[in-house]
Write a structure and sequence with these properties.
Elements: H1 2-64, H2 67-90, H3 95-123, H4 127-137, H5 141-277, H6 298-336, E1 342-344, H7 346-356, H8 358-363, E2 367-370, E3 376-378, H9 380-396, E4 405-413, E5 416-423, H10 454-464, E6 468-473, E7 479-486
Parallel strand pairs: 2-4
Antiparallel strand pairs: 1-3, 4-5, 5-7, 6-7
Length: 498
């Protein structure tokens, strides 16, 4: 509603502004025409005044023959043509006035010719003739024409003045009306906006009050759930420790009895071989010190091979079970370890990791490059485990016959440090990107030793340090692991919940 109201107000303001500009321009134009009419009437009055001045100066010169009157006549007569030209110019927009102006020009020029003739007679000492000429000319057609035409021109300008004044007044009234109406609309919209703002403020205050109540309840609920989660997490760690520890006891027994069974294997098959050779005779026990195993027949030999193979499977499974139990114990111990934030020179830390794998890198013709690496406040051991695992995986899963290239670089953004560990190794199929972070899950060809806990452990450490971890990789095109960690970890980000 508020957006609609603001839109309507904006449209009204734009409409008022446009209308005001147009009406102001129109009023200025209308007033200009009114001024133009006044200018025409003024110029006509000036022209007639100059004609009368010329006539008065001529009469005075005829009566007195004084030079000053002759000079005044010449000045007035010289200005009349320019006045006629200016009058014609400013009335060029009106055909009626153009016609009247042409007639007026002819009458004035005729009258000026009479003045000039009278002056010339006086100069020739024929004053009486000049006086008679002017006396008889007062009722001539030229004088009447000047009076009539000037009267017509004034009437036309008076008509135009009245019309243009009325138009200008209407334009001004319309402009005022638009401004007043627009102002009223703006005031109405402003009033309506105030009402809506007050209503919104009340609604916001009510919402904030409800939110505060919910927050109080939510904080208590979160604290309760956090305590439950922490207790459940500790219980899971204790359970994992107890289970893995208790599993070791039967596993040790199995390993011991398997070893004894393996030791008994030689005696068992020696007896079988001896019994087979002396089946028709009194069986004699072989000498315990006899190290040479008797030759077995085909059936017994197959039984011996099956026995050895079964023992191999049992020992292999026992070793795998032992590694898994050890991994679980390590994870539970790591989960109970308290992280300690400290300032870390990341380049120095990773450079130390690179030195520990230098021999392995040299054997696989791998180069490890370190780019810009921002320093952090974090847990040193956790960072060592994170980068050690990623670099070790990059070295482990290189493409056969291709020199390895591993780079570690970092940058900072909005209070976080972003590290990228990139390699040109086997790469990981996109469908396995999530799988490799699951506990005891591996992807791709399983031709390298491992229990499938490394990346799961790395992601758990990154989360405890308040960060995130992601992967960008394609099969046969290398991988890039991106680690985002807070630059100044306080030890509270996720450690308490982990």
């Amino acid at each position: 509603m508020q957006i609609l109201l603001l839109s309507v107000g904006f449209v009204v303001l734009v409409a008022i502004s446009v209308a005001s500009v147009l009406l102001v321009n129109q009023a200025r134009e209308d007033n200009a025409w009114v001024v133009h009419t006044v200018e025409v009437e003024s110029q006509l009055a000036n022209l007639l005044l100059e004609v009368r001045r010329a006539e008065s100066a001529t009469r005075a010169y005829l009566l007195t023959s004084a030079p000053q009157y002759l000079a005044e006549y010449q000045t007035a007569a010289a200005g009349i043509p320019a006045a006629l030209e200016h009058l014609a110019k400013i009335t060029a927009d009106n055909p009626t006035q153009v016609n009247n102006g042409a007639k007026l020009r002819a009458a004035v020029e005729k009258r000026l010719a009479e003045y000039a003739l009278g002056v010339e007679r006086v100069k020739n000492n024929d004053v009486a003739t000049g006086v008679d000429l002017l006396r008889n000319a007062t009722s001539t057609d030229a004088v009447e024409a000047i009076a009539r035409i000037s009267s017509d021109m004034r009437a036309e300008e008076d008509r135009l003045f009245a019309m243009r004044t009325a138009t200008a007044d209407r334009t001004q009234v319309l402009a005022s009306s638009v401004t007043i109406a627009g102002s009223c609309m703006v005031l109405a919209l402003a009033g309506f906006s105030i009402v809506l703002v007050r209503r919104s403020s009340r609604a916001r205050d009510d919402a904030e009050a409800r939110l505060r109540d919910v927050n109080v309840t939510l904080e208590a609920t979160v604290d309760e759930r956090t305590a439950d989660l922490r207790e459940a997490n500790e219980e899971i760690q204790r359970f994992a420790y107890i289970v893995s520890h208790d599993l070791r006891s039967p596993l040790v027994n199995i390993m011991g009895f398997t070893s004894e069974l393996e030791e008994l294997r030689s005696d068992i098959f020696k007896r079988i071989a001896t019994l087979g050779r002396n089946a028709s005779l009194q069986p004699t026990l072989p000498d315990a010190n006899d190290a040479v195993e008797p030759e077995l027949d085909e059936g017994d030999k197959q039984l011996s091979n099956d026995f050895d193979e079964s023992l191999g499977f049992i020992k292999s499974s026992i070793a795998k079970m032992d590694r898994l139990i050890s991994a679980i114990l390590n994870l539970t111990r790591e989960g109970r370890r308290e992280f300690k934030p400290e300032r870390i020179d990341v380049r120095e830390l990773i450079d130390g990791i690179v030195k520990t794998v230098a021999h392995q890198a040299a054997e696989s013709s791998t180069t490890i490059k370190l780019g810009a690496l921002p320093n952090l406040v974090s847990d040193r051991l956790a960072l060592e485990q994170i980068f050690s695992n990623l670099i070790d995986n990059a070295l482990k899963y290189l493409k056969d016959g291709v020199p390895g290239e591993i780079s570690v670089a970092g940058r900072t953004k909005l209070g976080f440090a972003i590290f990228e560990v990139t390699d040109n190794g086997r790469g990981i199929d996109p469908k396995d990107h999530q799988r490799i972070f699951d506990l005891f899950r591996r992807a791709g060809t399983q031709d390298k030793p491992g229990q499938g806990i490394g990346l799961a452990h790395v992601r758990a450490l990154v989360r405890r340090l308040g960060g995130t971890m992601s992967l960008a990789s394609e099969l046969h095109n290398g991988s890039t692991f991106t680690i985002t960690l807070p630059i100044k970890w306080t030890g509270r980000n996720r450690d308490r919940e982990s």
